[in-house]
Amino acid sequence: MELFIQICLLFSIPHFVNSINIARNKVAFQSTSAFPLCPYPSFVTDSDISIDNTATEPNYKCTKTSFDAERYSWFAVDLGNNYIIQKVCLLSGKVGSLLEKFNITVGNYLQGETSFCNYVEGPVKNPTSTSFSNYQCFDCREGSAIGSFLIITKTIKGSRLELCDIDVAGVFHSQSDYKEINFKDAQLTSSPLYINHAAENAIDKNYCTTYHSKSVTDQPYLLVTYTKLYKFFGFVITRRPNTVNRLRHTYASVKTKPDTTFDSKALFCCKDKTHDRLTPLASLIIKCDEIYSGQFFLIHQYNGETKLLIEIFELHIYGQLVDTFQEHKNTISQKPAIRTIKNQGTLVTPNEQSSLLDNKFFHASPNLQVETDNLIEISSDLIYLNTVCLSFDNGNTRKPNDNIEIVDYQTNEKITAELNGGYDYWHTTCTDLKKTIFSNYCKIIIKGDKFIHEIDFLAISVKSKEYIPYSSPKKCEMRSSIEINLKNVTNPHRLHFLVEYHHENSNSNSIVAGGNRFLSRQWKMCESLKISEENEYLENRAFFKCNTSFEYIQVFNLNRMERSSLHVYL
């Protein structure tokens, strides 16, 4: 018992030597970076520690900001979660000291309110080795410094900052609302590029490589496509010295479809941001004006006339994974259901079809070359869709809009739409149909010589929600249902429901759907749509249609399903 008490007392005493460094291997940022050296901010948080600040590449392992007479130099580390910061220990370089006259603060992002930890007059001592005794430590006032970003800021403009390592001690407080979104499963698509300046250079964590689009178009873009749905909070761009139009008139928007053409009605994270600083490798920090959800994050430059370009050394995007068990918009790609593609009545080659459906945009070959008035016919399994997207290379001239015609399987009605062609070089352009339909056939009449690189059909819901049955045996006996609120849905007079369910022995005949009408408590059943055609897409799916307005909709009898999803379309 006495030994147990001693152990408890030992662990209750704050200690920092050999304690967990909550900054180790975390993402780091700084106001600028010395150039042409590539002093990564992450040198301060990685495990390769050196105090030789006189070394040259590749042996220089500290980080240093550039001179900027009009700015306060700063360094920041993203701790990943919110911590109560107790102590910050810094390791300077062995020669000189640029660590003096600075504040240590803690915040929830790189911009905005911060809580105070300490002010250091300095200078921080020069070390003789990397042992912990050579670090200089600074306490935070007890319980006063809480956040996920630890920031060191010089208090004199034009004063540079150099740091070799940091050790931060703190106690976990809470999960961060927004975190850096991992690019592991993301795909990047760009307007035309300079050779060896691929879009992937913007996310390779290498400050010596650059993503660089060509200045051949008036709307250059970088599209990030995620496999999951996120709420987007902001982003950080590290850029090189600004000469002409490097990062001007910048827009960022959140999308539910991969359209890359500029749309003034888009859901913008930010609008018309310009960063004119000439300082090398400066950090441009953007906090979204509004929080939106989507799978696509689009960075644009646009002013309506000038040919622009985007140049990025590193890109970091912050957001939050959407809880799909709450109401959200959902995008389903129906590309796997496409069976054949014809050009002027002739089937395209297997290589061409594979290229048009492989999610690899604007690669050199193979792609499909088409001419004015060519007829493209696309046959698929019977699918639900309301959006058509094609990726075109128009060359250096704008083209007329292309015409689309899709037949509604249930009513035999022909639905027509146009695909925007008013851009040069390559873009993905999407068009929304006037309603959600079942279809297995689409034709496109081309209005200009061009190349097609990718084809996709989408079903974009106005609201979706996932459901897992109760795990308690007692609750399993209850009638299980999904409910969605439609109060904020515009013109909900023609609703389509898609219920996806997963169970070996499930039977869609047991599922029923209906809702409460606006300004009434009357509950009304929805019509179950019976589709005679059989294919893989229709398996484990139940379809309903309602020709009235509802305030809430519900789908019942899901208790035997392993997992279910409800998607509402207009």
From TrEMBL:
SUPFAM superfamilies: Galactose-binding domain-like
Record key words, sorted: Signal
Keyword Transmembrane helix included in the entry's annotation: no
Alphabetized Gene3D superfamilies for the sequence: Galactose-binding domain-like (2.60.120.260)
Signal peptide: 1-19
The organism's place on the tree of life at top rank: Eukaryota
Protein name (record): DgyrCDS14963
Source taxonomy: Eukaryota, Metazoa, Spiralia, Lophotrochozoa, Annelida
